[in-house]
Amino acid sequence: MKTGRIIKTAFRGLSKNKLRTFFMMIGIVIGITAITMVISVGLGAEDRVMERVKKFGLESIMIYAGGGTEMGRGTGGQPVTTLKLSDADILVSQVGTIDDVSPFSRMPGATVKYQELSANPSIQGVTFSYTSVWDIDVSEGRFISYEDDARMARVCVIAPTVQKELFGEINPIGEQIRIGNVPFEIIGILQQRGTSPGGGDMDNRIMIPLQTLMRRTANVDYISGIKVKLNTTEDLEKTEATITSILRERHKLAEGEPDDFRIITPTEVTQFAEKVAGTFNIFLVLVAGISLIAGGFVITNIMLISVSERKNEIGLRKAVGARRKDIQTQFLLETIAVTFIGGVIGILLGFAGAMIISVIIEMPAAYSWEGIAAGVLFSSLVGLIAGMQPARRASELDPIEALRS
Amino acid sequence: MEKVVQAVNLTKVYQKNNNMAVYALNDVSVEIAKGEFIAIMGASGSGKSTLMNILGCLDRPSEGKVLLDGEEVNKHDDETLAKIRNKKIGFVFQTFNLLSRTNALENVELPLIYSDKDNLTDLAKNALIKVGLGDRLDHQPNELSGGQQQRVAIARALVNDPEIIFADEPTGNLDTKSGYEIMDLFQKLNETGVTVVVVTHEPDIAEYASRIIKITDGKIVSDEKNINVRLAKEELNNIEKSATVKD
C-alpha cells in the first residue's frame, strides 16, 4: 500500500463533494482568521509601544510629584508641593549614574492669545537642559537659554500645532503672544513630536522658562516633575532606589509613610504595556480558540454524517482489499486536509484583515513566522482530533453490512 | 484438477435475541476447481450469500475451514484477509457499487490502489478493453447504461487478475438483453480460464453455468454438472433476429 495513493484518494473524496467540504472548512477559516488578525494587530501595537519607549529613552527615568495615581495631586486634590527645584540639583550632584536632569512644571490651563485668535495648549516651564534630556530641538529660532531662565525672561518656544492654530503661514518668531494676561515673545519653534502613546497631541504646547513660570506667572516654589537622563542603561533599579532614598530624606518622610513622588522607569512602562497587550491578546485568542473548537465539533459531525452516507463506498473499498488502516487514514486525511487548507486560507484572510484594521486605527500590523506556523499546526491538530472518531467508525464498519446499505 | 477453493464442514450460526440459534449454513462442504463456472442457486434466506461471503473471505465460518489455493484462510486476521481479497478474489454485486462522480477508469483502478502494483492506469485500461468498454474510459457511472456499469464492475473484479470471481445476482438489476450480455461476458471470461461463481435465485441464469449447486435452509441439496449449458451468445442472436423479423 502506498501512502501517496491514499492521500490522492482523500483529496478526491473532498473534491467530489465541494459543498460539504466548504461547510467543514468555514469554521476553521473563521477561527484562524480571527486569531491571525488579533495576533498581527497585537504584535503591531506592542512594536509601536516599544518604539515609543525607545523614543522616551531607555536610559531615562521620570520623577513625578505626588504618590497617588493622579500626577502632581495629593489625596485631597491639592497640588503636591514637596518636589522642589533644589531636589533636581541635588540628584545631579549626588547620584553618579545621573547625566543630566530636566525639571519641569505645568501651568494650569491658561488661554493663549495672538491678536484676535486664541488657543488652549498645555504650558510647561522648563530649563535649557530640556533639549538634551528629551532629545528634541527647535526647528526654527532658538530654545530657552540659561540666561532666559536666570532673568525670568518672558520668552517662549511654541510647538507646531500652536503655530498652525495661531499663525498659519506667518513666521511667528519675534511675535508677541499673551499667556493669560502676560505678554511673551516667541523665540523658537519646537520640532514635531507626533502623538503620545496615550493618543494625545504632543505638539499642542508652549514652553517657557521654568523660573518665569514659577515666579512670574504661577507664583509657586514647587515643580511637577523631573526627567532624569542616565549615563547607563544598567543598574536602573539601583539608581531608582538611590533617588528614592535621597528624595525621602529631603522630604523628611518617616519610615512607613508613603512616597510623595513617583518614579517611572522604561522597564515599568514596557512591562505595563506588555501586560495590557498580553491580557487583551489572551482574551481574544481564547475567544478565537473556542470558535476553533466549535469548528472542530462541526467537522466531526459532518464527517460522521459523511461516513454513514458513504457506507457503501467503505464496504466496497474493504471488499476489494482496503485494510482498516487504509480506511482510517483516508478519512483522517480528509479532515486534516480540510483544516490545513482552512488554516492557510484563515491566515491569508487574517493578514488581509489586519492590514485593513491597521489602516483604520493607524497602527502598523506585524506578522510573525511563528504565528503562521502555529496557526497551520493548530488547525491541523483540530482536524486530527476532530477526524479521529469518524475515521475509526468508518474503519470498523463490517464490509458485508456496509455493502448491504 | 487443481482446486481453487476447498470448503470443509462449514457452519455459520447467528444468535438471535431470544437465544435461538439460526443456522445460515449447516455443515456445508464444497470444492471449486480452477476454470469452473458455477452457479449457486437458492431462494432468499437459503444461505447462498452467506456461503459466498465466507468463500470470498468477507466473512468467517462459525465452524469448519476454508482453503484458498491450499492455504487455510479462516484463521487469518482481518488485515490478512483484506490482502487475500485484494490479490485473489474479485466481487461483482447486484447493484454494481461503482463510486459515483468517478470515471470508469478510476473505478477500475480502485483495487489496485490497495495493491503493490505500479502501472494502475494501464492495468485498468486493459481490464476495461477486455469487457468491451475501451471507448468509455472517462465516462462516469451516470453516463453509462446499467449493463455498461456492470461491465465496469466486472472489469474492476478482473483488474487484479484474481483466482476466482464471485458475482452476487449480477443480472438482478438489469433488463433481459443486458442480462444476456453480462452472462455472455462471464462465459467468454470463463473460456479464457477465469473461475466464475454466480450466486442467483433465477433458474434460467443458473443454466449458463457448467455446474449448479442448490442450497436450501443452509444445506446443499444438490450439486450437479449442467449438461445442457445455455449459451448467452445464442440468446442475444435470437433477440436480434426477432427484432429484424419485426422490422
Q: What does this 3D model show about the protein?
A:
The complex is a heterodimer of chains A (405) and B (247). With 405 residues, chain A is an alpha+beta fold. Chain A has 2 domains: 185 residues, no CATH class; 193 residues, no CATH class. In chain A, strands 1, 2, 3, 4, 5, 6, 7, 8, 9, 10, 11 and 12 form a 12-stranded mixed beta sheet that branches. In chain A, helix 9 runs parallel beside helix 12. Chain A is elongated. Chain B has 247 residues and is an alpha/beta fold. Chain B has a single domain, classed as Rossmann fold (3-Layer(aba) Sandwich). In chain B, the strands form 2 sheets. Chain B has a 6-stranded mixed beta sheet with strand order 6-7-8-3-9-10, sandwiched between helices. Chain B is globular, with a radius of gyration of 18 Å. The model of chain B has no long low-confidence stretch (mean pLDDT 93). The chains are: A alpha+beta (405), B alpha/beta (247). At the A-B interface, helix 1, helix 10, helix 11 and helix 13 of A face helix 2 and helix 3 of B.
